[in-house]
Every structure is written in C-alpha cells, then in structure tokens.
C-alpha cells in the first residue's frame, strides 16, 4: 500500500499498482485490511478496487550520481550548492 496513493470516491478506494504481483498480494490481504479500515472508520460500506498500471514504476536511485540527479530534479538549487561549495559525488 505504500507504493500507491489511494483515491477515495465515495465509499470506494481506487488503488493503482505497478504490477500484477502486488495486486495479487493485496487481494489476498483484502479482507483483513478492509476489516481494520471499516472498524477504525466505523463505516462498513467501504471497499476498494485495484487496478494495474504498468506505466507506474518507482525508480530507485542506487549510485551517488543517480541520487544527485534525483535530488536535482526535485530541487534545481542543489546544483548551485554543489558548485558553490565545490562538492564531489
């Protein structure tokens, strides 16, 4: 569930996952998850729908260069800090 952002539409939570394996695992645990959600919210009409969208892919940064590029995409001032303080990767 941490790899997606569920969207609530009425009593239905729409969940998009990047692959079928994650969908399968979530469907196996669906009843336990729904019981917890329904009990906590005291709303027994809540349900969720799961869709696979293979275009959603979380890219992980492993090397220092990939991490730097990821941070630079999030905040352009990172490159200014790198130049100003003469930082290496």
Explain what you see.
By secondary structure, the protein is α+β, with helices and mostly antiparallel strands. It folds into 2 domains: 7-52, no CATH class; 59-89, no CATH class. It contains 4 helices and 3 strands, in the order E-E-H-H-E-H-H. A 3-stranded mixed sheet has the order 1-2-3. It is elongated.
TL;DR of this structure?
This protein is α+β, with helices and mostly antiparallel strands. It has two domains: 7-52, no CATH class; 59-89, no CATH class.
Features:
three-stranded mixed β-sheet, 17% strand, elongated, alpha+beta, 2 domains, 45% helix, 89 residues
Order of helices and strands: EEHHEHH
Largest sheet: 3 strands, mixed
Structural class: alpha+beta
Rounded mean pLDDT score:
87
Gap between N and C termini: 33 Å
In terms of DSSP E residues, the strand content is: 15-25%
State the share of residues found in helices, binned by percent.
Answer: 40-55%
Order of adjacent strands in the largest pleated sheet: 1-2-3
What overall form do the CA principal axes indicate? elongated
What integer value in Å does the Rg equal? 19 Å
- Tally of extended strands? 3
* Count of individual helical segments: 4
Number of domains: 2
- Give the uncertain stretches in residue-range form: none
Layout of SSEs?
Blueprint: E1 7-9, E2 12-17, H1 20-28, H2 30-41, E3 47-52, H3 64-74, H4 77-84
């Amino acid at each position: 569930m941490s790899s997606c952002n569920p969207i609530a539409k009425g009593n239905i939570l729409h969940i998009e996952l990047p692959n079928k394996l994650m969908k399968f695992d979530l469907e196996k645990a669906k009843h336990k998850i729904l019981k917890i959600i329904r009990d906590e919210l005291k709303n027994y009409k809540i349900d969720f729908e799961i869709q696979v969208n293979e275009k959603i892919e979380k890219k992980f940064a492993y090397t220092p260069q990939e991490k730097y590029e990821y941070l630079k995409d999030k905040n352009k001032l990172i490159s200014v800090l790198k130049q100003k303080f003469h930082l290496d990767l």
